[in-house]
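Q: Give me a protein?
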Amino acid sequence: MTDTSIRRYTSEREEEREREDDESETLVCPECGGNLASDAEHGETVCEDCGLVVEEDEIDPGPEWRAFDASEKDEKSRVGAPTTNMMHDKGLSTNIGWQDKDAYGNSLSSRQREKMQRLRTWNERFRTRDSKERNLKQALGEIDRMASALGLPENVRETASVIYRRALDEDLLPGRSIEGVATSALYAAARQAGTPRSLDEIAAVSRVGKDEIARTYRYVVRELSLEIQPADPESYVPRFVSDLDLPDEVERRARQLLNTAKEQGVHSGKSPVGLAAAAVYAASLLANEKVTQSEVSEVANISEVTIRNRYHELLEAEEEFTAP
């Protein structure tokens, strides 16, 4: 063994001895030499004998959840990203990025880029191995595209994905288009979540016609026994008021008009979108806010004739309700 090797070996042994000494010092109290205990509840290290707080504000490396037995602990433990119904494989497969860069952000060589492209191709083939997975991938992509265009939140997309999966599992797709069932699932999910969109708005971003959407929607709701309440006109009011940039006073007046209409029975058999648009228009006039019927018509995607008819009905119901 050379002198250099001996010196290196000696220095490594000294460093190791120093680390051991430091660890032994931290395990005993610096005041009385007693044993130290970790208090996870308060994030402190305390001496068991004299009560000296050696460390405080410690970071808790444990999980944020509690488990009372081994099986519950196994169920709650998790590694990686959470699963989601919005992806056909629930997000469990590998996804190879398209950037063609290594872990340090450097560009790959031409040979490595060709290799990564082949890997992406084979990875895509393995992710969609059968017709059911290809069907799901196409449908969930359509749901995500339409939900983004309509500004629907993530919980609606998740619910729509679950509805479509149920329709696929119960063999409801033969004789119907993937786009039609996906659109009807999104329409049903939006109504279930209390953020409905009108049939015209859904049809505007869908690849299928309005009649097919309505027909498929009724079929899916009936076959899956979905519990969907009739659309409430009040649920459309906040969006219309926001799109028209009107104050909160208009929204409050519109809700008041619709509640009165319900008590008078005016809403029965009427389109909820038309009632909501007419209520917003009437409330804006009552609040001295300048808005035209054409502006409300454009936002609500209904005709001005409908707004005029419903607007008069709402005001008449309000007069009858307030009359002595």
In short: The chain has a mean pLDDT of 82. The two ends are 111 Å apart (CA to CA).
